[in-house]
Amino acid sequence: MTAEKPAPSGRLYGRDSLATSGMAVATGLAVAIGGYLIPVLGWIAGVVMMWLSPVWTRTQKLIVTLAPVAAAAVAGLVPLISGQNLVAWHLLLVFVVVSPLPIGIWLLVVGLRRLKS
User: Which of 29, 10, 23, 32 is nearest to 56 (CA)?
Assistant: First the structure.
């Protein structure tokens, strides 16, 4: 007798395990403070966890991924427009360094609300 192979579940690499409240908390915290604990790589790890999880919509994933990049682009354009480098450094500090914190908290709240419903 030969054993039958189980039918594929349609879930790639067990993504159901990425749709838990614990994983949503870990992802939100990694996006929010991961970049402070392990500069750049901590934030990237959080973004990768978010993209692998089915908890958030594609639009939410794009917002979280592109918001700091867009903020850096805006901060980079300020010296070209105004000619003031100090203003650009302040904008870069505020948008790129501080923005992951509220973005990560938003991601955490949205993820936990979606998992409850």
Answer: 23
Q: Which of 109, 14, 101 is nearest to 52 (CA)?
A: 14
Round to whole Å and give the CA distance between 96 and 93.
Answer: 6
Residues 111 and 50: their CA atoms lie apart, in Å, by 10
CB 103 within 8 A of CB 32: yes
3-state secondary structure 36-64: HHCCCHHHHHHHHHHHHCCCCCHHHHHHH
pLDDT digits (tens, 9 = 90+) for 69-106: 887 777 777 777 777 777 667 777 777 778 888 899 99
